[in-house]
């Protein structure tokens, strides 16, 4: 079997939980595999290749230093458009904008006319220009269409200008580029592949660059990768020895002419392979030599580097994923409803056209007084009438609907931006709605996918508690160890090295240290000050630690505050200050951390010649290596359980003294292992195991991985709203699991299922499905739950297991070589196709089963996953559950996930802006997500649904009056209203009240929305806007149109006015129906309004007043004189509305129309109230009560499960870096306060 084939987890050990799986672009070298032996085929291939000459190796990226013209060579050109070619090497400018000044108007119009409604109204406008067809003036369609296109274009322009500004801000950053023999300031956008750049401390890295030399020893460079992965701890990079020695001056860098051959641009953040060819020699390159765009240089004064990948080719940009056009479910549903309306419109127009054909034959052609002099036959007249009715009834598809929706969304976005309760004062960061098209989707979220580092956590570690020799410290106590109710931080002012932000509340431990009587406590902090790989530098007289992980930094900082201060280190010594006495220890060996060992050790020689080993590590591995007679094991274990249940990260400390003979024997084995050619790491681990035995326990530390404020409460409240939260992180399994407990996704009652368990369950389910295939048991088997015990379950799965479970194999990039296919029969080809289809079905079935299982769990944590796997998990849930998803993250490794989800949220702050730039919404703290969804999302959804239901209703009520009128007008496509009323109905007379409802309405206030998360559920189920609601609005509109037409029609049949004249003319009838309709639709929105303000009341009564005011103006004689052909209802309104009989008719029409609606509202709110109705009914009672206090989580001191997560983000290799002396700079003699020096 192929070595890269999927391995069965049952028949093997399965994937390694610590490995980050390959998941995306892979280099040809990785994918080259031995081909199946086929002698004859190989011979044919070889002969073909020999005839064609040597085959050029494809897929190799070549860069020549200090040579910009090299990238323009013909061999590096690629076709861009038609016959035009351009270099395959990208420039360094990035572009996220969509338009430029030239393309804005045409492209924006093209985009807008892709909307079916806009294209439909453009076609209507063209029809209205044709005199034979037009039944309405052209301006009745042109005015609303221009309004819609203009407002949407302005919104798109504002959004694109913001993107232009952000792009310009990045592209116009400056850096030093070597040109003409000296460094000159260039903008980022002008940097090219092959350029030599100079970076200074705290500079952003402009491209993916090869580190050549730095001002540090051995060209060491520290970088912060927060924008890539959200982690703020420093990573180190190294230049090659040859470039460090040869490339320090401008002249040397100018003469540098190396050729770099490396992998093609890809999105693998954790891998790079390449070769540098210089001066007839080759040097291998890997990720440790590469600085990636998006990182920041720290603690390194000067760095020189060469640009390898620029702009769109950089790994951070490759990780961005494809930008997807996101639309809400309501948008899709609204489009389908518009298509439904359009279909009904065609049916109605066709029916009325047929009616007109028959009417013309039987009545129209025989009535001399209806003769219009035209010679067309009835069929042609019917055809013309069909188009006429399409124009008359076009308001069934309301063009103003779209512009109103855009206005409402824009307003909702501003409300999010203006919300002070989502403003983070510490960093002056407000919430930002970066899109205006997805607000109502926030009220329908079913699944949240969250990153961990920087999203749920602050990535800040704090030393909280410890247990030393069986005694626990850390709870608030006075100097005598008596517990205190009040919290009073310890005063560390006695220690000149103390760090001001360090907080500790147990006053007995500092007193114990100052007395120096407890040798175990002294040894405890001595171990913390000595056993680590932290590096130190002095800055303005202050010690600055550079830690490989936040854990190590927190432990060394704790030792520093308690008087054991790490001062400096060399290749074979380490110097600390112990309560003011400076001591230097000889370092014999550092036994480095790795993910399998989960511990690190250091072997020191003391002043008296004693050789001592200090070790710290995860409790699960330390307890296995303790001496049988080591003291306080049970007591410490009990305290570890308590720490773990408080979601603190535990770490055990121990030591042993080593005899000279034992050490000599071990040192020889250690030397052999270090120079082993094969399996060096395994050999070293074996040697480390031999010395790390019979250890004596000193105690344990408890570190808090600080969650962001309010994370547990936010997750708890979102869970009550039936929102499922999945954590997708690149961190280790233990770390991710520990955070799961900290944020209450996991509890001690939760039964956790790991990758191997899931694999077995899914395999069993799939096997059962195959066994029952073809029977009726298949469906029932698929719906059968995976967990039948009724308990709380959770999945914790690593990226390797995820690939294993989902049958995800690596992509294969085949080289472009001529390979003649082996001839196959049709039977073999059919068999192969069937086999592929079977594999695809099995894969889809497996993925569906996995999602079903995961959805049965209360929590899902995927750890050690790649950016692509994060996006894959989101896509799976969207595909299998048809659910609305939200992704939230803070780093570049979250961008793909953010773009894949229906809603993407970026956490803004110190972690960088890459995630924010790709997000739909951004804010500074995870806790604001609760308010974004349960308040703004829910309100937006309710408002939009209420707006759409009412909008469809009022347009049906308005348009169908023409339908009823056609039965009494010979189906002649004549309108029941005046032309100007038709033009202004949706623009002025009925738009403002419904707009304000869409902007301001709320059934309950924000506090009650947060207090009762169940109010969110109707949005997830789509209860407030669906086809049922649509047809209710349709039938309601039909009913209103019937009342509006037939009651005035009946009243006008045999009527006599006060002046003895009959007011039953067409114009008086049009005024009466229009007046009745305006009053009805404006009072109807009043019945639907839950939250009344002055603006709402003013809009309702103001709209009615505006209608009457404008109507009297356009019916006046003065305007008729000026525009006689456009204003033909001269005196109609004054003449009709002076008749009391018509006012009685209007009042009767309004009453009969609204009374059934009032009755239905009453029945629903009293007999079938919704959850929202119940809360609204008791709103004043709830508002008077204080919100219920949250119960503190119970601390189960009897629990036996320890959760250790040593080395939060620790990297292997720091010990080798220290031992090699590459990281050591000369120790400054000035700047640090003088201390008494004593060499032990």
Automatic annotation (TrEMBL):
Alphabetized Pfam families for the sequence: Cation_ATPase (PF13246), E1-E2_ATPase (PF00122), PhoLip_ATPase_C (PF16212), PhoLip_ATPase_N (PF16209)
Organism taxonomic ancestry: Eukaryota, Metazoa, Chordata, Craniata, Vertebrata
Annotated InterPro entries: ATPase_P-typ_cyto_dom_N, ATPase_P-typ_P_site, ATPase_P-typ_TM_dom_sf, ATPase_P-typ_transduc_dom_A_sf, ATPase_P-type_domA, HAD-like_sf, HAD_sf, P-type_ATPase_IV
Biased composition (Acidic residues): 16-33
Family classification: Belongs to the cation transport ATPase (P-type) (TC 3.A.3) family. Type IV subfamily.
Keyword vocabulary terms for this entry: ATP-binding, Magnesium, Membrane, Metal-binding, Nucleotide-binding, Translocase, Transmembrane, Transmembrane helix
Region annotation (Disordered) ranges: 1-58, 817-843, 1179-1204, 1219-1240
Database matches in SUPFAM superfamilies: Calcium ATPase, transduction domain A, Calcium ATPase, transmembrane domain M, HAD-like, Metal cation-transporting ATPase, ATP-binding domain N
Coiled coil feature spans: none
Enzymatic reactions: ATP + H2O + phospholipidSide 1 = ADP + phosphate + phospholipidSide 2
This protein's name: Phospholipid-transporting ATPase
Cofactor(s) needed for function: Mg(2+)
Membrane topology recorded in Swiss-Prot or TrEMBL: Multi-pass membrane protein
Species annotation: Huso huso (Beluga)
EC number(s) reported in the record: 7.6.2.1
NCBIfam families linked: ATPase-Plipid, ATPase_P-type
């Amino acid at each position: 079997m192929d070595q890269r084939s999927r391995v069965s987890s049952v028949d093997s050990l399965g994937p390694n939980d610590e490995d980050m799986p390959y998941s995306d672009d892979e280099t040809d070298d990785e994918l080259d595999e031995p081909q199946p032996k086929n002698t004859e085929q190989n011979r044919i291939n070889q002969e073909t290749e020999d005839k064609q000459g040597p085959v050029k190796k494809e897929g190799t990226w070549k860069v020549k230093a200090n040579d910009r013209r090299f990238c323009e060579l013909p061999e590096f050109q690629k076709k861009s458009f038609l016959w035009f070619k351009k270099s395959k090497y990208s420039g360094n400018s990035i572009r996220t904008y969509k338009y430029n000044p030239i393309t804005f108007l045409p492209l924006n119009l093209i985009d807008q006319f892709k909307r079916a409604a806009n294209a439909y109204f453009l076609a209507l406008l063209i029809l209205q220009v044709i005199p034979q067809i037009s039944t309405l003036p052209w301006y009745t369609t042109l005015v609303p269409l221009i309004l819609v296109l203009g407002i949407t274009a302005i919104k798109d322009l504002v959004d694109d200008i913001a993107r232009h500004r952000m792009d310009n801000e990045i592209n116009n950053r400056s850096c030093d580029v070597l040109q003409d023999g000296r460094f000159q300031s260039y903008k980022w956008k002008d940097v090219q592949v092959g350029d030599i750049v100079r970076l200074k401390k705290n500079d952003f890295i402009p491209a993916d660059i090869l580190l050549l030399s730095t001002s540090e020893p051995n060209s060491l460079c520290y970088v912060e990768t927060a924008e890539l992965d959200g982690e703020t701890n420093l990573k180190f990079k190294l230049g090659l020895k040859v470039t460090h020695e040869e490339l320090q001056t401008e002249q040397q860098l100018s003469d540098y002419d190396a050729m770099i051959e490396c992998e093609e641009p890809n999105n693998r953040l954790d891998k790079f392979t390449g070769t540098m060819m210089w001066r007839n020699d080759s040097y291998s390159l890997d990720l440790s030599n590469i600085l990636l765009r998006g990182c920041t240089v720290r603690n390194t004064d000067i760095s020189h580097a060469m640009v390898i990948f620029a702009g769109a080719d950089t790994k951070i940009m490759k990780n961005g994923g494809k930008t997807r056009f996101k639309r809400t479910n309501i948008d899709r549903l609204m489009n389908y409803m518009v298509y439904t309306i359009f279909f009904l419109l065609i049916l109605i127009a066709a029916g009325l056209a047929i009616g007109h054909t028959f009417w013309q034959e039987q009545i129209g052609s025989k009535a001399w007084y209806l003769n219009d002099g035209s010679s067309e036959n009835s069929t042609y007249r019917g055809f013309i009438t069909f188009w006429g009715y399409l124009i008359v009834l076009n308001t069934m598809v309301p063009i103003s609907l779209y512009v109103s929706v855009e206005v409402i969304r824009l307003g909702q976005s501003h409300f999010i931006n203006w919300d002070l309760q989502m403003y983070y004062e510490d960093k002056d960061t407000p919430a930002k709605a970066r899109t205006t098209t997805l607000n109502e989707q926030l009220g329908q979220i079913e699944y949240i996918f969250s990153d961990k580092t920087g999203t749920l956590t602050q990535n800040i570690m704090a030393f909280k508690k410890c247990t030393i020799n069986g005694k626990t410290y850390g709870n608030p106590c006075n100097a005598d160890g008596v517990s205190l109710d009040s919290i009073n931080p310890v005063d560390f002012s006695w220690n000149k090295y103390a760090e001001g932000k360090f907080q500790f509340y147990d006053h007995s431990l500092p007193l114990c240290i100052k007395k120096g009587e407890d040798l175990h406590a002294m040894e405890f902090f001595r171990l913390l000050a000595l056993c680590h790989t932290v590096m130190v530098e002095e800055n303005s007289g202050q010690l600055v630690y550079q830690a490989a992980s936040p854990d190590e930094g927190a432990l060394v900082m704790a030792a520093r505050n308690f008087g054991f201060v790490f001062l400096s280190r060399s290749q074979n010594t380490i110097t600390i200050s112990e309560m003011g006495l400076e001591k230097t220890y000889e370092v014999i060996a550092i036994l480095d951390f790795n993910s399998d060992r989960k511990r690190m050790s250091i072997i020191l020689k003391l002043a008296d010649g004693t050789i001592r080993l200090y070790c710290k590590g995860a409790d699960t591995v330390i307890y296995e290596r303790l001496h049988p007679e080591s003291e306080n094991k049970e007591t410490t274990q009990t305290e570890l359980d308590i720490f773990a249940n408080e979601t603190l990260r535990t770490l055990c400390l121990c030591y042993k003294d080593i005899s000279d003979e034992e050490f000599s024997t071990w040192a020889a084995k250690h030397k052999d292992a270090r120079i082993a050619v094969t399996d060096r790491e395994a050999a070293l681990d074996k040697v480390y195991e031999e010395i790390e035995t019979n250890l004596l326990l000193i105690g344990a530390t408890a570190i808090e991985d600080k969650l962001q404020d309010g994370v547990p409460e936010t997750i708890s409240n979102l869970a009550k709203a039936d929102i499922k939260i999945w954590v997708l992180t690149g961190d280790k399994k233990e770390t991710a699991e520990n955070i799961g407990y900290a944020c209450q996704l996991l509890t001690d009652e939760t039964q956790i299922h790991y990758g191997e368990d899931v694999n077995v369950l899914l395999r069993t389910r799939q096997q059962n499905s195959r066994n029952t295939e073809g029977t009726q048991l298949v469906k029932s088997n698929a719906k059968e739950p995976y967990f039948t015990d009724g308990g709380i379950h959770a999945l914790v799965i690593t990226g390797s297991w995820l690939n294993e479970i989902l049958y995800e194999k690596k992509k294969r990039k085949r080289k472009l070589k001529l390979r003649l296919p082996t001839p196959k029969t049709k039977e073999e080809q059919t068999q192969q196709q069937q086999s592929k289809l079977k594999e695809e079905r099995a894969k889809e079935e497996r993925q569906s089963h996995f999602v079903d299982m995961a959805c049965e769990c209360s929590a899902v944590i995927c750890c050690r996953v790649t950016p692509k796997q994060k996006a894959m998990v989101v896509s799976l849930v969207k595909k299998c559950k048809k659910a609305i998803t939200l992704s939230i993250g803070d780093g570049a490794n979250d961008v793909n996930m953010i773009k894949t989800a229906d809603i993407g949220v970026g956490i803004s702050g110190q972690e960088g802006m890459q995630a924010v730039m790709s997000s739909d919404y951004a804010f500074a703290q995870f806790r604001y997500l609760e308010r974004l969804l349960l308040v703004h999302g829910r309100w937006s959804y309710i408002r939009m649904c209420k707006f759409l239901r009412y909008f469809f209703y009022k347009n049906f009520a308005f348009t169908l009056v023409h339908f009823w009128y056609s039965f009494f007008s010979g189906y002649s496509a004549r309108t029941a209203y005046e032309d100007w009323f038709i033009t202004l109905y949706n623009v002025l007379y009925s738009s403002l009240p419904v707009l304000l409802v869409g902007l301001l309405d709320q059934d309950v206030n924000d506090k009650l929305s947060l207090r009762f998360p169940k109010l969110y559920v109707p949005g997830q189920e789509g209860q407030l806007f669906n086809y049922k609601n649509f047809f209710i609005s349709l039938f309601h509109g039909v009913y209103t149109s019937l009342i509006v037409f037939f009651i005035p029609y009946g009243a006008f049949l045999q009527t006599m006015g006060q002046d003895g004249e009959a007011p039953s003319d067409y114009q008086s009838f049009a005024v009466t129906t229009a007046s009745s309709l305006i009053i009805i639709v404006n009072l109807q929105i009043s019945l639907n309004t839950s939250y009344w303000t002055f603006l709402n009341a003013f809009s309702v009564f103001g709209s009615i007043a505006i209608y009457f005011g404008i109507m009297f103006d356009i019916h006046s004689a003065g305007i008729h004189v000026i525009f006689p052909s456009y204003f033909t209802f001269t005196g109609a309104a004054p003449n009709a509305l002076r008749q009391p009989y018509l006012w009685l008719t209007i009042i009767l029409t309004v009453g009969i129309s609204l009374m059934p609606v009032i009755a239905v509202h009453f029945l629903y709110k009293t007999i079938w109230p919704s959850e929202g109705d119940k809360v609204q009914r008791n709103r004043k009672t709830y508002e008077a009560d204080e919100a219920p206090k949250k119960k503190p989580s119970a601390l189960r001191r009897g629990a036996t499960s320890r959760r250790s997560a040593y080395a939060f983000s620790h990297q292997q290799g720091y010990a080798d870096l220290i031992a090699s002396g590459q990281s050591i700079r000369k120790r400054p003699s000035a700047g640090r306060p003088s201390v008494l020096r004593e060499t032990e």
